[in-house]
Design a protein that fits this description.
Alpha-Beta Plaits; 10 strands; alpha+beta; 26% strand; 183 residues; 21% helix; two-stranded antiparallel sheet; four-stranded mixed beta sheet
Length: 183
Amino acid sequence: MAARQKRYALAIDARKCINCKACSVACRAENRVPLGKGRNWMNEELRGEYPKLMAVFEAEQCHHCADPACVRVCPTGASYQRPDGIVAIKDTECVGCRYCVVACPYDARFFREDRGVVEKCDLCAKRVDRAELPACVETCPSKVRVFGDLNDPNSKLHELLSKRQYRLKKPEAGTGPQIYYLL
């Protein structure tokens, strides 16, 4: 019997987020992200009417799309998608043209001037390959992020998505985003 192919994704429960930014700090430390840049970040939105306003914090990063526009436009093949769905960059092949930065509907890529390459979240692929969680998932004190294999019916991610409603951001872009925002 052939092994089932993994398909990694994230679910994000913004209701649990306290905006501590532990995810961003962990990412910066794990990936040596320079100050002023970010592989993940927090969006803040005010909802409601004055005086009953509520701040909502929502984690944002690469959506590891099923059909990533960034991969399609890369002239060197530096941007690629792994068989497990993680969208990554081979920085040794990146020429810094930034076509992928423009193509990404989520503004999830940035140009690293000191190295002349583009960077983005790769879900801590080296950690995932060692059967560890991405740094942002592991460090979150309120467990906002749930990482897992969409194709594993026994995973916490699969269970959450089968029981909770969720939304995808910018599905109209046609890229098949794989971050699920729980409602």
